[in-house]
Design goal:
single chain, alpha/beta, Rossmann fold, Alpha-Beta Plaits, seven-stranded parallel beta sheet, 22 helices, binds adenosine monophosphate, RNA strand annealing activity, RNA helicase activity
Length: 641
C-alpha cells in the first residue's frame, strides 16, 4: 500500500494520482487529507505556496461531494484569476476518473454570462475570485445557499488585496452548517478574525515553521548603488545563462519599465501586471510556461497564482513592502523538492531589511558580489563550450559540409575552436571591457534618498507633514486617500505624497506652498457627516521611519506601509498599452546564442540571440544608464501604481 492509499483516498483519486506521477503525499496532504475525509470539520491550515495545498483540500472535496447531485456543493475562493484557473485545472485533473463532477472557474475579465451558463448546467465545485463571486451573487446568477464546503485558499493574500468585505459578504450567504477550510501562508489579524467569525472549533495544522521559508530555497543578496540596480539585474542574468526566473518589482510602472528595458537590451523578458488585458496576461503566461520567456517581470499581485515548475531564480529587483510578501515571492522557486535561489538586489539603505527577513524566514542570506565583466565572459564562454559539446547534430548539415570545409580547411583545430567561440565571446568581452565594477559600491556613498519610489525632497523638512483624522476605518487605503485629497484640495497628480494610512488616522505630505490651502479647505470638509480635522504633524515626514523600518511592524512602516495592496482596484486599465509582452520579439526560437537567452540580435554570431551586448563591439546598444531605466524613470514620489 503506498502512502496515498493509507490516507483513505478513493480508487478513482488514486488512479488520477498515479497519472499525475505524485509518489508520496506532501506534508500538508499527509496531515490534512485523513482529517478532512474522516470528520466533518472546519480547518485552518498554515502552509506556504508550493506545498501541495491544492490537493490537500482538492482530494477530500472531490471525494466528499455527491457527483449525482448537480447543485453547487463546494466553493473555493482564491485571490487571483491565475490561481483560480490553476486550481480549477488541478481539480479537473484530480477528478478525471470521477464521473459527473463539474468544476467551473469564476473570475473577472471573462464573460459573466458564460460563467453563469456553465454554473447553471450543474457545477458541484465553483472556484472563484471574491470580486466576481460577489458580483454573481448580487446579480442572482449563482446559488451557494446549499454548499457543504467553503475553502479559502491563500486567505492572507485575499485579505491583503482588500477582499475582506467581499469574503465576509460571500460567507454570509452560505449555510452555517457547511465546513470551512482556510489555507493561508501566514496568520495576520484579519485572517484570524475571519476564522473566528466564520469557523467552529477549527482543527489547526501547520506545515513547517510558521512564516519560515522553504528549505529548498537559498537566499542571496547583492549590494549595489540604487542607480546600478538595472545593470546588476542584467549581469545576474548574464552570469546565469540558463536562468528561468520571476523578477519582482514593486509597482506596475517599474515592472513595465524593467521588462521593456530588458527586451530592448535583447533579453527574453515580458511584463506581467494588472494593467494588461486578460488576453495579454494569458499570452505572457503561456510563453513563460513554454519557456519562451526567461525573465518574467511581475508585480506581486499578478504573480500570485503562478505555478510554474523549475523556476531557477526569484529576483527581488526591489524588496517588497511586507515581509510576508518576500516569502510568497521566494516560494515561486524551490518547488516540489527542486532547489532554487532567491536573489535580492539591495542598496545600503535597505540592508537592515535583510536582517528582518532573516529573522522571519529563519534562514541566513549569503552576501554575494555582482560578477565582474570578466567573470561573466568566462561563464558565458564555458557555457558556450558545453553547448557545443552537447549539441545534437542535424544531419541536414552534411550537405553543406564540403563548402564549409572549403572555407575552414586552412585552420588548425586550435585556431578553429578559438575562432568559433570568439564569434560570441567577442561580443561579451567588447561590452564588458568598457563597463566598470558595480558591486558593493554603496559603501562610502550611502545615499539615503536612493530609495526607489521614495520622495527625495522630504527626508529632512522641505515638505509639510499632516495628520488627518480619517483612515482605513473610513475605507481608505493610501491610493484612495491620495485621490480623495487631490480632488478635495484641487491639487495636481504629485502634490500629495507619502500618504500613510492607519486605522483611525493618516499622515500625508505636501510641499509648503500648499499648506495654507490644506489647512483651510480640509478643516472645513465633512466626510459622511463627520468633520475632517487636519493638523500639521510633529512627525518629520516619515523619512526616518522608512529608514529604521520600525514604525509599523513588517519591515516597512512609514512610506512603505502605503504601498499598493490593491493592484487593479484603483489603477487605470491600460488595455493594449503596448510593451507588456513583446510577443513579436519573444516568440522567436529559444535556443542558440551565447547564453541562448534573448531574441534580439539576429545578425551574425552563433545563433546570436543572446543578451546584453548585441552585435560586435556594440557598446552603443548596451543600456546607457543616463537614458535608460536608471534614475530617470524612477518615481520620485509615491504613485498610484
Ligand atoms: P500547490 O501548493 O497546490 O500549488 O502545489 C505545488 C505543485 O506541487 C503543483 O505543481 C502540484 O501539482 C505539485 N504537487 C502537489 N502534490 C504533490 C505530490 N504529492 N507530489 C509531487 N508533486 C505534488
Amino acid at each position: 500500500m503506498n502512502k496515498f492509499e493509507q490516507l483513505g483516498l478513493s480508487e478513482s483519486l488514486l488512479k488520477a494520482i498515479l497519472d499525475l506521477g505524485f509518489e508520496n503525499p506532501t506534508e500538508v496532504q499527509e496531515k490534512a487529507i485523513p482529517l478532512l475525509l474522516e470528520k466533518d470539520t472546519d480547518m485552518v491550515a498554515l502552509a506556504q505556496t508550493g506545498t501541495g495545498k491544492t490537493a490537500a483540500f482538492g482530494f477530500p472535496v472531490i471525494q466528499k461531494i455527491d457527483a449525482n447531485n448537480r447543485n453547487t456543493q463546494a466553493l473555493i475562493l482564491s485571490p487571483t484569476r491565475e490561481l483560480c484557473l490553476q486550481i480549477t485545472n488541478e481539480i479537473k485533473n484530480y477528478s478525471k476518473y470521477e464521473k459527473g463532477i463539474n468544476v467551473v472557474a469564476v473570475y473577472g475579465g471573462a464573460s459573466i454570462t458564460d460563467q453563469a451558463r456553465d454554473i447553471k448546467r450543474g457545477a458541484q465545485i465553483i472556484v472563484a475570485t471574491p470580486g466576481r463571486m460577489q458580483d454573481m451573487i448580487n446579480r442572482g446568477l449563482v446559488n451557494i445557499s446549499q454548499i457543504n464546503f467553503c475553502i479559502l485558499d491563500e486567505a492572507d493574500e485575499m485579505l491583503n488585496m482588500g477582499f475582506y468585505e467581499d469574503i465576509v459578504n460571500i460567507l454570509s450567504t452560505t449555510p452555517d452548517e457547511k465546513n470551512t477550510w482556510l489555507f493561508s501562508a501566514t496568520m495576520p489579524a484579519e485572517v484570524a478574525r475571519i476564522g473566528k467569525q466564520f469557523m467552529k472549533d477549527p482543527i489547526e495544522i501547520t506545515v513547517g515553521a510558521k512564516n519560515s521559508g522553504s528549505a529548498t530555497v537559498s537566499h542571496e543578496f547583492y549590494l549595489v548603488n540604487a542607480r546600478d540596480r538595472y545593470e546588476a539585474l542584467k549581469r545576474l542574468a548574464d552570469a546565469n545563462p540558463d536562468i528561468f526566473s520571476v523578477v519582482f518589482c514593486r509597482t506596475k510602472r517599474d515592472t513595465q519599465a524593467v521588462a521593456e528595458k530588458l527586451v530592448e537590451d535583447g533579453y527574453s523578458a515580458a511584463a506581467l501586471h494588472g494593467d494588461l488585458s486578460q488576453a495579454q496576461r494569458d499570452g505572457v503566461m503561456k510563453s513563460f510556461r513554454g519557456r519562451q520567456i526567461q525573465m518574467l517581470v511581475a508585480t506581486d499581485v499578478a504573480a500570485r497564482g503562478i505555478d510554474v515548475d523549475n523556476i531557477t531564480h526569484v529576483v527581488n529587483y526591489q524588496l517588497p513592502d511586507e515581509i510576508e510578501t518576500y516569502n510568497h515571492r521566494s516560494g515561486r522557486t524551490g518547488r516540489a523538492g527542486k532547489l532554487g535561489t532567491s536573489i535580492v538586489i539591495v542598496t545600503k539603505s535597505e540592508l537592515r531589511k535583510i536582517s528582518s527577513i532573516e529573522r522571519i524566514i529563519k534562514q541566513k542570506f549569503e552576501e554575494k558580489t555582482i560578477p565582474s565583466g570578466i567573470e561573466i565572459c568566462e561563464i558565458q564562454l564555458l557555457h558556450l563550450a558545453n553547448k557545443i559539446k552537447d549539441v545534437e547534430v542535424d544531419h541536414e548539415i552534411d550537405n553543406y559540409l564540403p563548402a564549409i570545409n572549403n572555407v575552414l580547411e586552412a585552420l588548425s583545430k586550435e585556431e578553429l575552436i578559438k575562432k568559433m567561440v570568439s564569434v560570441e565571446f567577442n561580443r561579451f568581452i567588447n561590452y564588458y571591457k568598457k563597463t566598470r565594477d558595480i558591486s558593493n559600491q554603496a559603501s562610502g556613498s550611502e545615499r539615503r534618498d536612493d530609495r526607489d519610489g521614495a520622495p527625495r525632497e522630504n527626508n529632512n523638512g522641505g515638505a509639510t507633514r499632516y495628520f488627518v483624522n480619517i483612515g482605513s476605518r473610513d475605507n481608505f487605503d493610501w491610493m484612495s486617500l491620495k485621490d480623495y485629497l487631490k480632488e478635495t484640495l484641487d491639487l495636481g497628480r504629485d502634490d500629495v505624497f507619502k500618504v500613510d494610512v492607519k486605522e483611525g488616522f493618516s499622515f500625508f505630505n505636501t510641499d509648503p506652498e500648499h499648506t495654507d490651502k490644506v489647512m483651510e479647505v480640509l478643516n472645513n470638509v465633512q466626510l459622511e457627516g463627520r468633520r475632517i480635522n487636519v493638523e500639521i504633524s510633529k512627525n518629520d515626514g516619515g523619512g526616518r521611519r522608512d529608514h529604521n523600518g520600525r514604525s509599523s511592524g513588517g519591515f516597512g512602516g512609514g512610506q512603505r506601509s502605503s504601498a499598493p495592496r490593491r493592484e487593479g482596484s484603483f489603477a487605470p486599465r491600460r488595455e493594449g498599452s503596448g510593451g507588456g509582452f513583446r510577443g513579436d520579439r519573444n516568440s522567436a526560437p529559444r535556443e542558440g546564442g551565447f547564453g541562448g537567452r534573448s531574441s534580439a540580435p539576429r545578425e551574425g554570431g552563433f545563433g546570436g540571440r543572446s543578451s546584453a551586448p548585441r552585435g560586435e563591439g556594440s557598446s552603443d546598444r548596451a543600456p546607457r544608464r543616463s537614458e535608460s531605466f536608471g534614475d530617470s524613470s524612477r518615481p520620485r514620489r509615491p504613485r498610484k501604481d
